[in-house]
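I am still learning, so can you show me any protein sequence you like together with the matching structure tokens, please?
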Amino acid sequence: MIIDSLQHSALYEQVNPYFKEAFDYIKKLDFNNLAAGKTQVNGDALIVNINESQLKKKEDAKLEVHNRYIDIQIPLSCAEGFGWKYRPECTQPKSEFNEEKDILFFDDEPSTYFTLQSGEFVIFFPEDAHAPLVGEGEVKKIVVKVQA
């Protein structure tokens, strides 16, 4: 997992072949005028989702993992909390891995929580179980799916 500010994104562009393209695309967006929706920036290798979601209590946010994609998540409209746990330490899957949606949920408790402010980002790799959308109110956010 990586947490930082968008102004430092260049530090991480070499971590994955698609990160530079992802951050370049994000930086060209007008955060004040984004409509919810999905854009395939580079086929299935780089997908940008603009979401508006209701935040929830810590106990209602479930850990999730992905195999094919790395998530870059950026809250836009307000602060957003996240839970995190190292995936190999998760032992309570809620169901089987959904290959089509590239997701598996766990009933495990996160080992740590953190909060991102607008303009900050988190990168979750396949080994990062993460519980997004912790807080109160509604958040507009960017979720970038980057091929792992």
